[in-house]
Amino acid sequence: MDSRTATFRDLHATGCFVMPNPWDAGTARVLEQLGFPALATTSAGAAWSLGLADNHISLEQSLSHLEAVAAAVAVPVNADFQDGFAVEPEHVRANVARAVTTGIAGLSIEDASGDPDEPLLALDLCVERILAARQAIDESGTGVLLTGRSEGFVVGRSDIDDTIRRLQAYAEAGVDCLYAPRLSTVEQVAAVVAAVAPKPVNLLINSPFTTVTEAAALGVRRISVGGTLARTAWTGFLAAARELADSGTATRFTGLDDVDAMFGARRGKGLPTSAPGPRRR
Predict the structure, then answer these.
(1) Is 280 part of a structural domain of the chain?
(2) Is residue 281 part of a domain?
(3) Global confidence as pTM
(4) Residue 275 lies in a domain
(5) pLDDT averaged per 10 residues in sequence order, the chain, 281 residues
(6) How many domains does the chain have?
């Protein structure tokens, strides 16, 4: 087990940490400079940077992306590995075996099917997929941390009881961390934390329904933001580009951050002195 993987596992032992989601090497480096102790990739942000919709990148594109982000920083990187880029367990196992060689410290496997009529894979199959991912990691000897994701609240099946049932099954199958994206109330978060305890829970904060301090008090161990930072950046870019195209004005081209300085263009310069320290509670 390398040092970043060991560090990542230690972060899950106590407290609560924020693991934001860069979408390329540059944003990863800046988030590391801001003091975050770990980072996570975002399938949506990675896809948009390639001119694709979310869930449309290939396995090879994903592996290249993981390598690039992991190589750009010294902190642990968790991989949004979507559905393992396969349905059948043996293929999930093979793909996970490749992913753990990219330098990542963790990865997640989700249970969405992509079928609007049956948006979640059958639970028995999902458990077999988790077992296959677990076997691939164990055989690799890397110690990469495995997260099991249940996508019910993402695909329109907002049933907290079914979500908890799935997460508990994934916990029993050997995942190290549990994650149900798009929970939207503190009651839902508290129910998930209690149901899978003592295993750690990842919480997605992609709207202002809670804060890091409140989530930590609920027992959340890890917080990510998914594609929301990327979407925030795209919103600013689109607003400025649309103004330039529609009216020929550039009112948004003021008060901009010195991005070049963040990458060491000027010795002694860097991020503003108001930049916060590590996100750990």
Answers:
(1) no
(2) no
(3) 0.93
(4) no
(5) 97 98 98 98 97 96 98 98 98 98 98 95 98 98 98 96 98 98 97 98 96 98 98 98 98 96 67 47 56
(6) 1
